[in-house]
What does this fold into?
Amino acid sequence: MKVNIFRTEKEFESIAQSSSIGFVPTMGNLHAGHISLLERSLKENEISIMSIFVNPTQFAAGEDFNTYPRTFEADLRKIQLMADNYPSKEVIVFFPENEKVIYPEGWKPIDYRPGSLALELEGSLRPNHFDGVIQVVKRLFDIVKPQKAYFGQKDFQQLAIIKKMVKDLGLPLQIIGMPIVREEDGLAMSSRNQYLDATQRQDAQKIYRTLCNICEIGKNHLDQAQSLVAECLGKDPNWNYLTIREPKTLSLKLEGHKELVVLANYKMGKTKLLDNMIFHI
Ligand code: AMP
It folds into this structure.
């Protein structure tokens, strides 16, 4: 089936209210990670809507908003290829024709703060980032009106914040977190990986290796895993953070929790590489 492209909010009026709608918000420059979210949505819904919108409000001054790769034609081909596997399902790409579609005259940001969850880790590296994410995701939910929305665990803190927002605001949809899709050498797929030169790309393997080591040790000896984290941080100043947390609240209080997550952000030149891994005690 042909993939339809919506460029305005009004076009959503044509969607039958009775259909089940799955939603995958993205900033485009799609890779297999994004497409895995679309595939899950295709399996679970009659209509799958993937948005492609590079949201200016989640970038700080000096970040890569202007240079963020915009590859709509290639993205569309990847979407069509996956959609072709599900001929009875409908796929809509929401590619707003301009920022005003998302932020029209008179639009007011919602007054919602997820609390401490948004203040550290990515929140402290990228001040206001999560506020931008919350606003755009809430606005997209209002336009698309999905029953289910799919997010990658790659952005673990973002997923935790969105789940909390949906719960706190009582929004009528289910948030589904999907596993990280990785390159063959373990590097988490990301649109920003293409900023790396050959040496940096090679060097980036250590992020996955480090996470694997910490999890492998942590499942039997949490104290030794914590020592390894401290050793890594001490040896290499490029870890923006490397930390073991409780997965729901991202608290440092780990006692009594069977499931934990190692969260990492590594500075590779000008690029910040994000990754994480869950382990069980
Ligand atoms: P982005 O366009 O990079 O903001 O990502 C859009 C969605 O795709 C978010 O929910 C991300 O968490 C998810 N995503 C990005 N990279 C991956 C990956 N390697 N594996 C799974 N999901 C991903």
Remarks:
- The mean pLDDT is 97.
- The longest strand covers residues 259-268.
